């Protein structure tokens, strides 16, 4: 009986397709120039390391998603530099605007990277179809504030777009996280307007696999509308984990990281990948035929 149960479990977990690997990046904050700013984080150096690590990935991602704050101050030169960085990856790009992004500059950036919507969509929103899934990008930028919002027109469009393709596995991308995370400063500038209705829409459409966000400069995970909601950390710099009531937080020197999503048609898994590794991985087992069945960790212990 146990064997039958295990066989049934294996069949249930069997992938439905070749895996799709998605790099979820966020908050690049690309400066307009390559010069370091005195007294500030060296964002250019951080991005250089990050994109070198992304180029070295094996296997390479099939798709790159950027969940907002592409440019730090919304300047045209910054978007040109961001496009150059992303083109080096030679992969399709899906991007959404963040609170630091300038609408006109971001629209030009989208055109430059070929990221425009393939079907009619609200301004700065997009729908992109790939072999395994669909990605819908939303625009949560509100002028003159760091907080975010989605108006009824955009949410009506999202609901209708999901209704038209109920069998199409879909990722939603929005810069501002639509939930309270406990970090006081970030909670005040989360997705405020439209968050309740967005959660209802997500819950009503089973094809939504996950909601991907940025903005908080930290990795976070929760459930939203019964689906995973994942926040990608920033490639530029981290925000401290300040959970004190009324805490203001600050910048942190934590290691830069990003998300790698693995989708096999049955299950979507999020991995946190660090830009700077710890050297070559040590194999679990040595490849000496005489010691083929001895774990490397056991051999290391005996050597000591």
TrEMBL record:
Top-level lineage group: Bacteria
Any one GO molecular function term: cyclic-nucleotide phosphodiesterase activity
N-terminal signal peptide: none
Positions of the Calcineurin-like phosphoesterase domain: 20-218
Coiled coil: none
Residue intervals passing through the bilayer: none
Keywords attached to this entry: Hydrolase, Iron, Metal-binding
Pfam families reported for this sequence: Metallophos (PF00149)
Family: Belongs to the cyclic nucleotide phosphodiesterase class-III family.
PANTHER family referenced in this protein's UniProt entry, alphabetically: CYCLIC NUCLEOTIDE PHOSPHODIESTERASE CBUA0032-RELATED, PHOSPHOHYDROLASE
Protein name per its UniProtKB record: 3',5'-cyclic adenosine monophosphate phosphodiesterase CpdA
Gene designation per UniProt: cpdA
